[in-house]
Each structure stands twice: as structure tokens, then as C-alpha cells.
Write the C-alpha cells for this entry.
Amino acid sequence: MEQFIECIRQPWPWYIAGPLIGLTVPALLLLGNKSFGISSSLRHACAACFPANIPFFKYNWQKEMWNLVFVLGVLIGGFIATVFISNPDTVVVAESTQRDLAALGMTSFSNLMPSEIFSWENLFTLKGLFFFVIGGFMVGFGTRYAGGCTSGHAIMGISNLQWPSLVATIFFMLGGFGMTHLILPHIMALVGF
Amino acid sequence: MKTEQKNIQNSPIDCEAPNMQKMDETGLSLLKYLIVGILFGIVFVKAEIISWYRIQEMFRLQSFFMYGVIGSAIAVGMLSIFLIKKFNVKTISGEQIKIGNKEFRKGQIIGGFIFGLGWALTGACPGPLFAQIGSGFGVVAVTLLSAIAGTWVYGRFADKLPN
């Protein structure tokens, strides 16, 4: 048992994690005819809390309550994994990535998230403005405009052989490449790295 | 025609995750989705998919890890849906499984690209946002609120955007 705990404390390889994530697709379908998708939870949150008479938010969100329960589970799962079975060692980041980010001024590579960015002290700074506020806004606006995110399009949509989902996934990746290589260096310089 | 289109836009079917179950579910029957969510969140953290650095490695083509995760998740999802359709597998309450088709819209290009920009900045798609908060990165709650605001702004101007 101790050996088992020791084993699951280590970071899980992609060939374990990927198939487990893929199994969410049949799990949700078999449990209750639900299509896998996470960004819809953001829409349900709007519909439930601030519908403001906007047609896009006027629908029976109670019927989609399962989705909000599901993302609450994801949050609790994050808590459980961190408190009970977290990896005692520091995160391993590819050396080339460390080098590239160090060249942009980043110095810490030991946690899951860069402590130089993701801390409360940065909330009302330019770092907070770009990495939390603008970044988050683009995630919410973009996923809804695209009609899905990595789960709904890349995993669920492509699994169901939907070509529009493949198009969406290609543009997710293009946006990510563009940000990482063309815009991020300027943002990092601007916010004081 | 115009109103009909509007109706399609506004129905929750337009979500990527519609509830196709006919039977109502409340209270305890929702618990199963909580459990699937918890397991999913644990995988996110244990495979370090929620890490900002993993997303950077992916977009810098410096690690195979995220490509392996997404690729094998799609492979398993595809095989599962193929088997469900081939053997006409029913849900646990005996309903026919229905999966909505995705219609092509310009949003998948423009919105997809905007999401990609945000993904590389925040290091998170919507799922990992929740897992990051659970992992103790409390400030990500601000990112989440901002994402909800982004969703709201899209909803507010949806009919004025090219689609």
C-alpha cells in the first residue's frame, strides 16, 4: 500500500493521464447522455448569476446543472491531489523551455505555476492585468465564440469526427503559438521581467 | 428564417456540452458528475497538466508530453464513441446515447484563435483553471472571474459578431 501511494505521488506519465482523460468521454455519455465540455460551465455561470435579459443567457440552465457540479468536482480533485498525493520533488521543466523563459527574465522553475506571476501581490500590477485579467478574458470570450475549448472541441468534437472541431483546435494551437513566440516576449518585457 | 437561426443560437444545444438526457436529474443523482469531476481534477494535477510550464513546453515544441496527453485522450475518446455507436450502447438509465453535431461557424476560427492567445498567457484552458484554484493557486480565481466576464461579453455582443 505504501509503495502504491509512493508510486502515485510521482508525476503521472502522458500515457496514463491521456487515456484517463479520454475515458471522461464515455463516462459522461454512459452516466447520463452528457457531452464532455468544460467551458459551457462559464456560460451557465453567466446564465445563473447575470443573465441581464441577454438572449444568449436565457435558457434552462438548471438542466445543465450537472456541468457546474462537474467543474466543482475538478476543483475538489485539484485540492485532493495537492493535499494528499502531491509530488514531493520539484517540477521538471524541459531545459530548453527553462532557457527560453530565462532569456525573457524568468527565474523560478520549481513550482507548477511561476511564482513570479501567479501570486496575490501581482493582482493590481501590469502582470496581473495581462496574465489574469486579459488572459482570462480571452479564454472566456474565445472559448464561447468558438463554441468550445480543449475538452469540447479538441477531445469530444474530434473524437466524434466533427471537422469544425478540428478547425477550432488548429486555431487554438495557432493562437497559442502566436502568443508564445510573437507577443509574450513583449508582454514580459512590459510587465517588468 | 432569421428568428429560426436566432433560436438555434440561443438554445443550449449550441453549448459544446449539452445535456441530452430526457430524465430530470437533481440532488443526489448529480453526485456522479461530482465524482467524475474529482477524478478528472486529480489527473489534471498529478500529470501536471495544470502547469503553466507544460503549456509553454507545448507551444515551444520542446516536450512531447501535452501532445501525448491530448493525442491519447482523443484516441481513447474516439474508440469509445465508435464502440458506443457500433454496439448501440445505452446510458445506465437505458436511454439512447445522443451526441450533437458541431456546425461550422467563423467563431471557431476567430474565437479559437483568441482562446489560443489566452491559453498561452494563463497557462490554462477552462478545466485546469478550476484545478489550479483547488491546488491552492487562489489568485487564479481572478482569471476565472475574468473568463466568466469574457463569456458574458461574448453573449452580450454575440449577434453583432461575424458568425
Q: What stands out?
A: Helices of chain B lie at 2-10, 31-46, 52-59, 65-86, 107-122, 126-134, 140-157.
